[in-house]
Design brief:
heterodimer; A: alpha+beta; SH3 type barrels; five-stranded antiparallel sheet; 5 strands; B: alpha/beta; 4 strands; about 10% strand
Amino acid sequence: MTASILQQVKAGLNELPAFAVGDRVRVATRAPIGHYRVPIYLRGGVGVVERVIEPALVDNEEEGYGRNAGNKRHYYRISIPLPTLWHDYQGSHRDELHIEIYETWLERA
Amino acid sequence: MATGKHYHDHDHGHDHGDHAPITAESKPGYYEVMETAVRELLTEKGYITPNDIRHQIEVLDSRTPALGAAVVARAWVDPAFKARLLEDGRKGCEELGITFYDDTQLIVLENTPDVHNLIVCTLCSCYPRPVLGLPPDWYKLKPYRARAVIEPRKVLAEFGTQIPDDVEIRVSDSTAVVRYLVLPRRPEGTQGWSEERLAALVTRDAMIGVIPVSLDKEAA
C-alpha cells in the first residue's frame, strides 16, 4: 500500500548528490572574478569525499550575485593531504586539510 | 559655560582627562559607511527594525565558551550523547537547548590518541558562534588564518602544543555553511568527576584545537 507508492518516488537529478563518500575529486581551478568561497590555495587540489553534507543547499555563488537562488546542490566535506598542497610541508605525511566544497566546484579525479 | 566662575571642587583627586569630551576623531571608514547605509535602507524599507538588530546583538553576547564546555562535558560522560553529537553536531547542541539562529551546520571533530583537530577560517572568521560566542582576535587575523593551513604544527607549537609526528593533524577550514567544534580528549585523572567540574576544565582554545584540556585550568 503506502510503502509501495513511496518507493516509486524519483528524485530530481539535482536532488541527488553527484559524489559519494570515498570518491576521489579535484577542486576546479576556475578563477572567476568576484568573491567565491573556495580558497585559492586548494583550487586544483585532489582529495577524497569524506562526508556528504545534507540537506542540499542554495548555490550561494548564484545567490550572492542576485541570480536564480533556487538552485540547490550538495556540499561535500573532502580531505586533502597537506603535503600535496604545499611542496615544502613540514609534518607528518598523514596530515590533512578538511573542507566543505560546493558541488559545482568539484570534478572527478 | 563661560561664566568664569568655578563651581566644582578642584581637589576631586582624579585626572581631568576623564572629562574629555567624546568626539568622532576620524571619518568613518568605507565599510562603516556601507554598513550604516545598508542598515538604514533595510530599516527604512521595513525589512528589519532597530530592535531586531539590538536583539541579535543580545543573542550573540549570550553565547560564550561555557556553552561549548557544557557540550564537551556531556559528551565525555554520556557515550550515547557523544555518538549523536558526532553524527550531527547541531542536533546534539540543540538537544541541550543551544539554538543556532541561522542555517549553519556544526561538525564536531573528536580528538583521539591518533588524530588532533585544528579549526580555522582562511577566508574570514567563520566560527562556531552559537556555542562559543565571538572568536578571539588572533583567530580573525591573517597570520593565524594563513599559517594554520600551511604549517599547523609550528602554529600549535607557538601555542605551547607539541603534537608527536605519529599523530595526524587535521586542519578544518570553514567555508559557507559548516562550522566546527573540537571535542578535546578528556584528561587523565578525572574519573568520576561531575559534568560541571569537567566543564570547568574546558577552555575556548581547547575547542578551537590549539591546546589540549589539562588539569592546570582548575588550579589556575
